[in-house]
């Protein structure tokens, strides 16, 4: 048995791939904000457990806040993975192809993903219209309906729209740079 590991991006620094361009580097850097959101949600839940079970003083905001923080982190995770080229890929055929065929496949996959992301952004816009605007056209964010009643559902839908639109642009940038053969 060999001790060698087949790692396709061995030797490459962590971060956005070069083909992702400036947008990819910005997406990669912003990822730390959402990682800190996960850590903050953990701290909020620890605080909630202490308040609830030690001091018998539960909060009304902890669960919705942690769901919101984790939700936006998961939504952002898709964009983050696209900039770093760390999404799930079936490599059985891909790895067997020569470099030129892989480049063509990368362009095709990026264009399909851009179209898909744009369609999801369009669908998210339909959700945002209902979540952010009243029937008379005035602005009012959808609320959770709980005792605390934050605007998190409306904010999450707006965030999803923005992320899907940026993801579509990111995939177009990837397709262009793959087509140019940029490394």
Automatic annotation (TrEMBL):
According to the record, the segments passing through the membrane are 32-55, 61-83, 104-125, 158-179
How is this protein positioned relative to the membrane?
A: Multi-pass membrane protein
Q: Where's the Tripartite ATP-independent periplasmic transporters DctQ component domain? A: 42-173
Tell me if Transmembrane helix is a UniProt keyword of this record. yes
Q: Which InterPro entries match?
A: DctQ (IPR055348), TRAP_DctQ (IPR007387)
Q: Could you tell me which Pfam families the record lists for this protein?
A: DctQ
**Where is this gene product found?**
Cell inner membrane
UniProt KW keywords: Cell inner membrane, Cell membrane, Membrane, Transmembrane, Transmembrane helix, Transport
Listed under GO cellular component are: plasma membrane
Q: Which GO terms fall under molecular function for this chain's record?
A: transmembrane transporter activity
What is the annotated role of this protein in its UniProt record?
Part of the tripartite ATP-independent periplasmic (TRAP) transport system.
Fill in the subunit field for this protein: The complex comprises the extracytoplasmic solute receptor protein and the two transmembrane proteins.
Question: What family is it from?
Answer: Belongs to the TRAP transporter small permease family.
In Swiss-Prot or TrEMBL terms, this protein is called TRAP transporter small permease protein
Which organism is this protein's natural source?
Oricola thermophila
Q: What is the lineage of its organism?
A: Bacteria, Pseudomonadati, Pseudomonadota, Alphaproteobacteria, Hyphomicrobiales
